[in-house]
Specification:
Elements (H helix, E strand, L loop, with lengths): L14 E5 L12 H10 L4 E5 H9 L32 H17 L3 E6 L10 H21 L3 E5 L12 H17 L5 E5 L10 H11 L4 E6 H8 L13 H15 L5 E6 L1 E2 L19 H9 E2 L12 H11 L5 E4 L13 H20 L10 H20 L12 H13 L10
Parallel strand pairs: 1-2, 1-10, 2-3, 4-5, 5-6, 6-7, 7-10
Antiparallel strand pairs: 8-9
InterPro entries: IolE/XylAMocC-like (IPR050312), Xyl_isomerase-like_sf (IPR036237), Xyl_isomerase-like_TIM-brl (IPR013022)
Pfam family, one: AP_endonuc_2
Organism: Sporothrix schenckii (strain ATCC 58251 / de Perez 2211183)
């Protein structure tokens, strides 16, 4: 893996990102454009694009091939074209056009797409046919990443049933090394970050994922460190009363100390941040959320993640201890991304994206203050950023009440109108020659 590099300077900025699913979900009626609006208005600089959102948009596009790609960085996409009900699985062409749409939407809001994720259920597949199919899909993902202008794809550890995925280390490494080589050969090249899920079938700790990364031994292959998954595996257990393993505190202390000493900071490509809510009762048979076919940690993760610092919502994981090791001892600087899933994000009321964006902004202000972070934009002025976000939110709410949320195409300037129509023509949603 090469010599350990010196940690980045403490003056290197950390930048705020959020997963698109953490602001609401498409199937609940929250368009990606609405969520991006809220991210931009609340001070986020980047987003992790969930493939599910890209696929949802792609399913709404007509089955017509694009003739060429047009620069669309100044284009504003009308919300109405993104809310049609999905029908069938999208074609590669639809996905490519959807990626161009998302890129344009992010560009108009000055949001970077920091990664495309998750490339699920890949490494260690027992079925070689399934493996070959996933490798072929990775070629498409690399193409989509290029269109989105991100150089990062996230691969979570496989959590398929044990009969479908091998735990043999050499096969896991072989699969991920081949994936890294495909990504490196892409135009432009792509990096892969590997995340150990707390319920992974065979890879469920940062130590295991780091061992894999060392053996893959490719410069474009690194780690995603997720505070929830780290703490959920060695500290927490939602299936016991109180939610904490008997030796959890000691195990976590030892784990993060080892992380700071063992991991090369240049191999950490992304840090995701989330807390978890303490359940009122153990997640065992009889609990309303219990599912015999799902690991308890996965069920808990999908229903009860929280933002950093939300102790008032029963957050209890020692996320600050994990971050102290990553940001302090290890010296990581770069993108910090909120990734959480809970019942609120699947709520159907229109206030969900604004609420989640606001909660994340409050969490970020606390994080900046707690760790004295340089942010490269807001510096250490989290409260001012929050004030601006609140003003933006109130302005947005006023526009919504006045019926101004869905700006019409005719209200735009001539150049904006032509830019929009060019993109709609590209996506098969408008007839050529309709610019005027």
């Amino acid at each position: 893996m090469g010599a350990r590099q010196e940690p980045p300077s403490s003056k290197t900025p950390c930048r705020l990102s959020i997963s698109t699913l953490s602001l609401g979900q498409s199937y609940a009626g929250h368009s990606l454009e609405q969520r991006l609006d809220q991210a931009s208005q609340h001070g986020y600089q980047g987003i992790e694009l969930f493939y599910d959102d890209l696929e949802y948009i792609a399913q709404t596009l007509p089955l017509v091939p694009p003739s060429s790609f047009t620069t669309t960085d100044s284009t504003v996409i009308p919300t109405t074209i993104l809310m049609a009900a999905p029908t069938t699985a999208p074609t590669d062409s639809q996905l490519v056009r959807a990626a161009a749409l998302v890129r344009a939407m992010c560009a108009t809001r000055r949001l970077a797409v920091i990664c495309l994720q998750p490339f699920r259920h890949f490494e260690g597949l027992v079925s070689r046919d399934a493996r070959a199919h996933r490798l072929a899909e990775l070629h498409l993902w690399c193409r989509l990443a290029g269109i989105l202008r991100t150089d990062l794809i996230l691969i979570p550890s496989n959590f398929l049933p044990a009969g479908q995925v091998t735990g043999e280390f050499k096969f896991i490494v072989q699969d991920l090394r081949e994936a890294a080589e495909i990504a490196a050969a892409a135009t432009p090249p792509v990096r892969l970050c590997y995340e150990a899920l707390a319920w992974g079938t065979h890879i469920d700790t940062w130590q295991a994922s780091w061992g894999v990364a060392q053996q893959v031994d490719r410069p474009n292959f690194g780690l995603c460190l997720d505070t929830f998954n780290i703490a959920a595996r060695v500290y927490a257990d939602p299936a016991v009363s109180g939610g904490v393993q008997p030796e959890g505190p000691q195990r976590l202390t030892e784990s993060v100390k080892e992380l700071a000493a063992a991991v090369s900071v240049d191999r950490v490509f992304l840090v995701q941040i989330a807390d978890g809510a303490r359940l009122a009762a153990p997640l065992v048979p009889g609990h309303p959320l219990y599912d015999a076919d799902s690991p308890a940690r996965m069920t808990w993760s999908r229903q009860h993640r929280l933002f950093y610092g939300e102790d008032d919502r029963s957050g209890y994981l020692p996320v600050d201890q994990v971050l102290a090791a990553i940001l302090g001892d290890l010296g990581y600087r770069g993108w910090l991304s909120f990734e959480l899933f809970n019942r609120r994000t699947s709520g159907t009321d229109a206030s969900v994206p604004a609420e989640m964006a606001r909660r994340g902004a409050a969490s970020w202000a606390k994080l900046v203050e707690d760790f004295g972070l340089e942010t490269g934009g807001g510096g250490k002025t989290g409260p001012q950023t929050l004030k601006g976000a609140k003003v933006a939110e109130e302005s947005c709410a006023t526009k919504s009440k006045e019926g101004g949320a869905g700006e019409s195409l005719s209200s735009r300037s001539g150049s904006q109108r032509k830019s929009v129509v060019r993109l709609l023509t590209l996506c098969g949603l408008c007839q050529p020659g309709s610019e005027e």
